[in-house]
Amino acid sequence: MAKHDPHLDDLFTALGDPTRRAVLARLARGPASVSELAAPHAMALPSFMGHLQKLETAGLIETRKQGRTRICRLAPDALAPALDWLSKQRALWSGRLDRFDNYVTRLNDARSQKEPPHGHPDRPRPAD
Amino acid sequence: MAKHDPHLDDLFTALGDPTRRAVLARLARGPASVSELAAPHAMALPSFMGHLQKLETAGLIETRKQGRTRICRLAPDALAPALDWLSKQRALWSGRLDRFDNYVTRLNDARSQKEPPHGHPDRPRPAD
DNA sequence: GAATTACTTAGGCGTATGGCTAAGCATGAT
DNA sequence: ATCATGCTTAGCCATACGCCTAAGTAATTC
After folding, report:
1. CA angle, B104 as apex, B123 and B108 as ends, to 5°?
2. B61 and B48 inside one domain
3. Local structure of B5: helix, strand or coil
4. What is the nearest nucleotide to A65, using C1' and CA?
5. B69 vs B35: CA distance, rounded Å
6. Is position B91 within any domain?
7. Residue A18's domain spans which residues?
8. Same domain, yes or no, for B21 and B67?
9. How far apart, in Å, are the Cα atoms of A19 and each of A28, A38, A86, B30, B82?
10. What is the pLDDT of residues B21-34, one digit of tens each?
11. Does residue A19 approach strand C to less than 7 Å at its CB?
12. Most distant CA pair in chain A: distance in Å?
């Protein structure tokens, strides 16, 4: 079940920045050098390198030095964990949403009308 | 294509925190009150509320007040944009990766063995 | 109506993030 | 050898983040 995966932290955080997503999108069209990647981004190179650093730390890109230029490319399956978490989560959501929505709506309605002394009944514990 | 979508920033950033992901996971089993959600998280309530706030800002959860308790539940299709971006991206990656990987590997190999005086040949400029 | 409960608001604190400039290497070209 | 290029390191700054305590407000309970 993955208690809390620190890798996912890095992954999602890395994706949470437009510059970094743009770099990934650009990189999807093929490897590129640092300065090439930095060109469209209107920021000083060291700042930009910071972004690359995070992408690499998150395992989203791989870089290697070739002469004095550093070539960056995408890491093959780096998106898999994120995609995996998201799709699992969505599967749960869609499965449960309507059921519980109905349940709670009904519950609230009952409470605001009747004020049962019991407080809240045991939550349904959806089969686990 | 989405030049840079600020919504995605919020979405991914919200997902980049273990507490917030845990809340979502928990919430996938059904709606819950703030204090119920906060219970397993060993932090002061205001701190925890900050996380809920971000989840709501990101559009991942919806909350409404019922008496003095606030009920939180998942927002139906909130994950879709993130999932969408990721899967599109992955589609691009897998399409290009091997092609360019081969190209670059071959290129580097040639250079480190022969050191051609030409410098780097024109990169392939993938169609665009 | 007074106490309890469940949030909420206000404000503070330390660290991380995202940006900058200015030097500092290496490598490649002349 | 010299110079230009391409990245790297070092250091600074402002803001945002994640956490806290303390005090406030609104709804239930007694």
Report:
1. 105
2. yes
3. coil
4. D7
5. 8
6. yes
7. 6-74
8. yes
9. 14, 10, 22, 35, 16
10. 999 999 999 999 99
11. yes
12. 77
Tell me if B125 is assigned to some domain: no
Place of tokens 């890095």: A10
Task: Return the structure tokens found at B12.
Answer: 């991914």
Q: Are residues B12 and B64 both part of a single domain? A: yes
Q: What pLDDT digit, counting tens, does each position of B42-82 carry?
A: 999 999 999 999 999 999 999 999 999 999 999 988 899 99
In this structure, the answer to whether residues B35 and B59 fall within a common structural domain is: yes
Please report whether residue B47 resides in a domain.
yes
- Please tell me the total number of residues recorded for chain B in this structure: 128
Which pLDDT does position A56 carry in this prediction?
96
As for how many domains chain B has, the answer is 2
* Closest alpha carbon to A16 in B93, B61, B14, B119: B14
Smallest Cα distance from B20 to chain A, Å: 10
CATH number for A21: 1.10.10.10
Which of the two residues, B110 and A89, has the higher pLDDT score? A89
Nucleotides of C under 7 A from a protein CB: 5-11, 17-22, 26-29
Nearest to A28 among B4, B30, B96 (CB): B96
